[in-house]
Structures are given as C-alpha cells and as structure tokens.
Amino acid sequence: MKRLLFPTLLAAVLLSSCNTADGSIDYNQTLALIIIIVIIALFFVLAAYSNLLRDTVNNCDVFEANARKIQHKRGLKRIRNENPYSLSRVQLAVWTVIISCSYIYLELCMGNCNSTDINQTALVLMGIGAGVTAAGSIMDNREIQNGTPRHQNAPSEGFFVDLLSDDQGISIHRFQNVVWTFIAMVIYLHKVCNIATGCDLPELSDTLLALTGISGATYLVLKSQENGGAEDASEPANNTGLSTGPAAAISPAVPVPPTVNPLNSSPVIPDTASVTASTSSPIPEGADPGVAVSTPEVTPTGSVTPGS
Predict the structure, then answer these.
(1) Using 50, 70 and 90 to split pLDDT, how confident is the model at 245?
(2) Residue 194: which residues within 8 A CB-CB, separation 6 or more?
(3) Domain assignments of the chain as residue spans, ordered by start
C-alpha cells in the first residue's frame, strides 16, 4: 500500500491542477507537469546516488586517511565515504534543469516555440556553465596526471561546505561564484513565472550576464591555484587538517666549497706529510732543557719553514 501512495498523490495533483475552465483536462499542461517533475526528480536521485555532481577521487589511501580524520574530529561512529560535490558540475546541472524545464513549460503551456528567435540569454548561460565545467575538468585531469596532491581526495562534508571550500576552507572565489549564480537563477525563474503569453524564454540584462561570466572566470583562475598549481606537486599548506598527499622530496645537502686564501685565491690544502714535528713534541733526548727547541712552521701554501 505504501508503494501506491506516492503515485496516487502525484496523479491526484496532476489531474486537479491541469483542469481548464470548463472542467476538462488540459493534456498539454499535464504532460508539461509530468516531464518537469520527472526531470527534477531524476536530478535529485542522480545527485544523491551517483557521482554525476561529484569530484573525481584519484588517491584512495589519502581519501581513507581524511575520512578517519573527519570521523575522529566530529566524534562520529560512522561516516559516509562519498566524493565531494563539484561546484562547476552542480552549476551546469542546475542551469540545465532550469532552462529545460522553462522551455517545456513555455512550449506546452504557452504556445508554439518554433517561431521564436534564438534566445541569447539561454545560450550564454549554458555556454558559461559548460565552459567552466570543461575547464575545471581539464585542470583536474592535469593535476591527476602530474601527481599533484588534491584537496578533493577527501569525503564530502556536506553539499554547501563542498561547494564553498578549497584546501584552505571556505574561499571567497567560490563564495562569489555561488552568490552571482544564485542571483541569476532567481531572476531567470522570476521572469519565467511572469510570462503571461508567448513562448520566448526570458532575457537577462547584459550587466548580469557579464557579472556571471566574470564570476566564472575568477573562479577558474583561482581554482587553478587551489592545489598549488598543476605544475607544483608539493603538498600545499592547508588549514583543514586533512592530508592532500605525499610531501615533497627533501633536496640533497649542498656541498661546502673549500676555503680560499684571499692572498692568492687558491684553495688552502695543508700538506700534512711535510710536517715532521709539532709544537707539542717532547724535548729530544740529551738536549738542554733550558735551550728552546725550534718547531717547524707551516706557511699558507703548505710548505714547511724551519723555526728560528
């Protein structure tokens, strides 16, 4: 019985909300509502049970180590070892859902959209989302190929935390990208709801489109430095307490050059074989203790001169 409850409620909502003024069913509106619900439901199901919206994890050992750290830090008995959410993938997926559902609504409920002109806003928004996602994927693949330690090799800490965090924690370039994208989405949906007649997708202002594009470009530029850059394979400093990978190899010790005599600029290498006596040598047998015994003197060039 419980399995039939949701389909029954869904059918009741569809039939009651798509009636015309004379009481008959508007099949176009019903079909539009069904398709929109399926798209939205599919989005949430794939987001929860697949890696459609999640980053790539390339180091399982570091991932497991970070999972244990998070579990110990939060005092959890068990943690869900899921990949973190990707900001660029989430944006592309959300824009896809919004624009596709808007087009279905206008096409089936407002008239024939075949006679409308090309909508510049929809193309720009989908282009920004696709471009940011493609560039971010190229950066991730380059870091994986170069063996760069990545902060993405850690379990998800929550949807919004994943979207706003880099290796240093909550970051400004991710925050501003989320804010401007959210503003554009809200205004776009508001314009769709206010369409009374016609099938034209809404147009956003050039200023808002430019701000959205600049926000995406800023995010990409700073994303390339999140893990120390694609060419730097050393472990970046982070304040999250999570491991990002093996530390950089310790450079070998630099040899110390020999001492140079400032007089002749040649290395001073004493000739120990030429030294036949020292100042600490005992008094020779039969010598007068009151007579000073001369000792050899070593010159800077290594030769031995007799004492006076």
Answers:
(1) low
(2) none
(3) 7-50, 53-223
Q: What are phi and psi of 43, to 5 degrees?
A: -60, -50
Other Cβ atoms within 10 Å of 274 Cβ, number: 11
Task: State if pTM tops 0.70.
Answer: no
Instruction: Work out the pLDDT band at 40, boundaries 50, 70, 90.
Output: very high
- The β-bridge relationship of strands 165-166 and 304-305 is unpaired
Of 177, 145, 152, nearest in space to 56 by CA:
152
Tokens matching residue 150: 């990545």
Residue 165 tokens read as 């965090």
In the chain, DSSP assigns E strands to 165-166, 169-170, 297-298, 304-305
- For 177, counting Cβ atoms within 10 Å of its Cβ (0-12 exposed, 13-18 middle, 19+ buried), the class is buried
Instruction: For residue 33, count CB atoms less than 10 angstroms from its CB and return exposed for 0-12, middle for 13-18, buried for 19 or more.
Output: buried
Gap between the Cα atoms of 84 and 55, Å rounded: 6
Q: How many other β-carbons are positioned within 10 Å of the β-carbon of residue 53?
A: 24
Tokens 């000073």 sit on residue: 292
228 versus 141: the higher-pLDDT residue is: 141
Rounded CA-CA distance 150/87 in Å is 15
Residue 103: both structure tokens together: 């087009």
Residue 298's nearest CA partner among 273, 263, 264, 267 is: 273
pLDDT in tens, 155-192: 888 899 999 988 888 999 999 999 999 999 999 999 99
In terms of DSSP H, where are the helices of 50-171?
A: 60-74, 87-109, 120-146, 159-164
Which among 94, 100, 99 is positioned nearest to 121, based on CA atoms? 99
Tokens of 176: 């501003």
